[in-house]
Amino acid sequence: NAGVTQTPKFQVLKTGQSMTLQCAQDMNHNSMYWYRQDPGMGLRLIYYSASEGTTDKGEVPNGYNVSRLNKREFSLRLESAAPSQTSVYFCASSEFAADTEAFFGQGTRLTVV
Amino acid sequence: GENVEQHPSTLSVQEGDSAVIKCTYSDSASNYFPWYKQELGKRPQLIIDIRSNVGEKKDQRIAVTLNKTAKHFSLHITETQPEDSAVYFCAASRSSGDKLTFGTGTRLAVRP
C-alpha cells in the first residue's frame, strides 16, 4: 500500500498565481486533513474533511480552498498565492476521527516569490 | 478551541541519557494525546499515544504520562540513541473529535 500520496513534492509560484495540491489515500480512511508546517509554529490545520462530502475550516483557512473529490482524494487550492503561504504542506488521513492515528503524506515544499 | 503548548523547543542530551518533553493543553474535554516524531526531511509518524483513562503508557524506551487534573502530559525517552534525534510533536483531541491540535515541536539532538 502506498498510504498517503501528495503531489507535487516541490513547487515555486509567483505571487498571484494559483495551484492545486493533490492528495490521495488508499487506506479507506474517512477523515482527511491539510496542515502547513512553518519553523517554530508546529503543524497548523488548514482544512479538514471528517467524512466524504464534508469539509470544515481549521485554524488557518484564509487564502485556501479544499475539495473532497471522493473518499480517496482531498485537494487544496491556492487561488492567488502570497509569500506568506510559503511553507511545507502535509496531507494526512485517519480511519475515523481525530483520535485515531493520522498517516501523513511526504509533504509539498511550496515557495511563493 | 484547544491550545497545546510544548516545552522545550530544543533539547540536547548525551547519548544514553534520558530526555523529557512536556506539553499542556487547555480543553478539559480532550482525551486523546498522541506523540509524533519527524525526522529531518521526512513526514511525521506516530510513536505513542495515550487516552485519558490511563495515566501512563510504555513502549520499550518510550513512555508517556498524563495528568488530567493539571492538563499536562509528557514524553520520556530513556537510554537515548543518535537515531532518536528528530523533532517531536505532542497533540490533543477529543474522543471522536474532528480536529487534532499540535504543539509547536521540540527538536531533540542526541550527542554521540
Provide a concise account of the structure shown:
The complex is a heterodimer of chains A (113) and B (112). Chain A has no helices and 11 strands.
Q: Can you offer a commentary on this structure?
A:
- The complex is a heterodimer of chains A (113) and B (112).
- Chain A is an all-beta fold.
- Chain A is built from no helices and 11 strands.
- In chain A, strand 7 and strand 8 form a beta hairpin.
- Chain A starts with a strand and ends with a strand.
- The relative contact order of chain A is 0.33.
- Chain B contains no helices and 11 strands.
- Chain B has strands at residues 4-7, 10-14, 19-25, 32-38, 45-51, 56-59, 62-67, 72-77, 86-92, 101-102, 106-111.
- In chain B, strands 2, 4, 5, 9, 10 and 11 form a 6-stranded mixed β-sheet that branches.
- The chains are: A mainly beta (113), B mainly beta (112).
- At the A-B interface, strand 4 and strand 5 of A face strand 4, strand 5 and strand 10 of B.
| Rg estimate of chain B, integer Å | 13 Å
Multimeric state of these chains?
Answer: heterodimer
The end-to-end span of chain B amounts to 41 Å
How far the N terminus sits from the C terminus of chain A, by CA atoms, comes to 36 Å
Biggest sheet architecture of chain B: 6 strands, mixed
* Backbone CA Rg of chain A: 13 Å
How does the major sheet of chain A shape up? 7 strands, mixed
Overall geometry of chain A comes to globular
Q: Roughly what fraction of the amino acids of chain B lie in strands?
A: over 45%
Given the structure, what is the number of helices of chain A? Answer: 0
List the main descriptive attributes of the protein structure presented here.
heterodimer, A: 113 residues, mainly beta, seven-stranded mixed β-sheet, four-stranded antiparallel β-sheet, 11 strands, 0% helix, globular, B: 112 residues, six-stranded mixed β-sheet, five-stranded antiparallel β-sheet
